[in-house]
Amino acid sequence: ARAAFANAGITPAEGRMTLAGAVTKTGALMVLCAIAAAGIWVTSTSLGPSMPVAIMVAALLGFAIAMATVFVPRWAPVTAPLYAIVEGVLLGGITLLINANPRYRGLPVTALGLTMLSGVTMLALYVTRIVRVTRRFRAIVMGAIIAIAAYYLIAIVLGLFGVQAPLLQDSGWASIAFSLLVVGIASLSFLLDFDMIEQAVNRGSPQYLEWYGAFGVLVTFIWLYLEVLRLLLKISGRRR
After folding, report:
1. Using CA atoms, how far apart are residues 74 and 11, in angstroms rounded to an integer?
2. CA distances from 171 to 102, 111, 186, 206 (A)
3. Per-residue model confidence as pLDDT tens digits over 3-60
4. Could you give the C-alpha distances from 194 to 64, 88, 129, 131, 160, in angstroms and in order?
5. What is the CB-side half-sphere exposure of residue 209 using CA atoms within 13 A?
6. Could you tell me if 35 and 91 are in contact, meaning their C-beta atoms sit under 8 angstroms apart?
C-alpha cells in the first residue's frame, strides 16, 4: 500500500492530493457503506433464506475488488466506492443475522460504537503526536498484520477439511485474549493509514490517491468492526 503512494507520479492533467480531499472521500465511502448496509436491512424480508448466499457473494466480490484496488491504485476512484457498497451489503447481512439471535441482540450496535470510538481515539493520538509512526513502529504493526493474515489463511484452509483452528470461534480465555490482541493491532492500523495519507499529501501525490487513502481507512474500519464483533460474541458466549 505504501508503495502505491511512494511510486505514483502526477501527469499534467492531474491535480495534487490534498488532506481535505482524502477526508471528504473517506466520509463518502463510509456513507456509501452505511447506505448499502441499511438497504440490506430494509430488503431482508424479501431476501429471506438467500441471505447467507448474498453474504458469501459479497465477501468474495469485496475481496476481488480490494485486490484490484491494491494492485492498480489508479482504479481507486471507481473501485473504492464499489468496495464500500459491496462491504455494506456484507456487513448489513452479518449484523442482521447476529441481531436476529435474541442472545446477541444489540451486539452489532455496541461493536459499531466501539469501532468508531477506536477510530476517533487513534486519530486524536496521531494528530496530537502522542503516538508517532516511526519506521520501527510501522514494521512491528505490519509484521503483526501479516502474521494475523497468515493465521486466518491457515484457518480457512483447515476449515475446508473440516478442521477448526484454535483461538477463532471458541469462547475460552485464550481465544478472548487472541481477539483482544487482534483488535489492538487493527486499531493501530489506523495510525498507519493516517501516516500514509499525510506523507502522500506532503509528497504532492496525484489526486486519485485520495480515493486510495480513503479505501485504506475503510478497510481498517471494516476489519476492526468485525474483530470487535467477534470479541463481543466470544465474551457473550461465556455468559451462557
Report:
1. 12
2. 18, 17, 20, 46
3. 565 555 555 556 899 999 999 999 999 999 999 999 888 877 666 677 788 889 999 9
4. 24, 22, 12, 12, 36
5. 28
6. no
Residues in the chain, how many?
240
Cell of 141: 504493526
What cell numbers appear for 148 in the block?
A: 494475523
DSSP string, 107-141: HHHHHHHHHHHHHHHHHHHHHTTSS---HHHHHHH
53, three cell numbers: 448466499
What span, in angstroms and rounded, lies between the C-alpha atoms of 28 and 214? Answer: 9
Specify the 3-state DSSP secondary structure of 16. strand
**What is the distance between the alpha carbons of residues 106 and 194, in angstroms, rounded to a whole number?**
30
Note whether 108 and 91 are within 8 A (CB): no
The Cα 76–Cα 135 span in angstroms is 26
